[in-house]
Amino acid sequence: MKYLIVSDIHGSLPALEKVLAFYREQQCDLLCILGDILNYGPRNGLPEGLDPKGIAERLNAMAGEIVAIRGNCDSEVDQMLLDFPILSDYTLVVDNGKRLFLTHGHIYNEEKRPKAVTDCFFYGHTHLWKLERQANGVVCNTGSVTFPKGGNIPTFATYENGTVTVYRLDGEPLASLTLDK
User: Fold this and answer.
1) How far is CA 70 from CA 8, 74, 109, 163, in A?
2) Could you report the per-residue pLDDT of 152-168, keeping only the tens digit for each?
3) Which of the two residues, 90 and 115, has the higher pLDDT score?
4) What does the buried/exposed string (b/e) look like for 40-76 if buried means 16 or more CB atoms within 10 Å of the residue's CB?
5) Tens digits of residue pLDDT in 106-131
6) Nearest in space to 83 (alpha carbons), one of 102, 69, 62
7) What values do phi and psi take at 41, rounded to 5?
8) Fold category of 2-178 in CATH
9) Of 36, 128, 161, 181, which has the most beta carbons under 10 Å away?
10) What are the DSSP calls for the chain, one per residue?
11) Chain-centre distance of CA 56, in angstroms?
């Protein structure tokens, strides 16, 4: 299976539409959303193309292809608009024996990893993309497609056959790592 992993959409419909175009073009099988879907949050400005209802419509149309995690800006009110669950703090996906831990990053993060043994730890929250091999597996922060920080550009990631790739929002790859050393 091919997974597209995205975090911190923060209500930007134009950003989501670019992600979904890549998802379709690359024939991905599952969209993994690591939180902060509809709400832009009190510390951010208004995103370009703020349209929470439009985002809900686009995502609800493909609800069967989505696994989503709660971010610090997501709430029960957001869940009422969405036809797929978003209120879990994490999920563990097992793909061909590889354990992928998916979380937003405000509870579990690089400094506070879960006790679960994982091959890849995916998170967002900081809006700073990262992809590196560590002693306890590969770590991937997918960054943000709407509010990248630290001078970064908007980013998301994919996972397929043991390989994690981080992409710019325009679909150009930035970095890639295989889970096997």
Assistant:
1) 11, 6, 14, 25
2) 999 999 999 999 999 99
3) 90
4) bbeebeebeebbbebbbeebeeeeeebbbbbbebbee
5) 999 989 998 888 999 999 999 999 99
6) 62
7) 85, 155
8) Purple Acid Phosphatase; chain A, domain 2 (3.60.21)
9) 36
10) -EEEEE---TTBHHHHHHHHHHHHHTT-SEEEE-S--S---TTS-PPTTB-HHHHHHHHHTTGGGEEE---TT--HHHHHH-SS----SEEEEEETTEEEEEE-SSSS-SSS--SS--SEEEE-SS---EEEEETTEEEEE---SS---TTPPPEEEEEETTEEEEEETTS-EEEEEES--
11) 16
For residue 47, give Cα distances in angstroms to 26, 146, 147. 26, 7, 8
Q: Residue 148 carries which side chain, given as an amino acid letter?
A: P
Q: Where are the domains of the chain?
A: 2-178
String of DSSP letters for 43-60: TS-PPTTB-HHHHHHHHH
> Cα 40 vs. chain centroid, distance in angstroms?
15
What residue has token string 């043991």?
A: 162
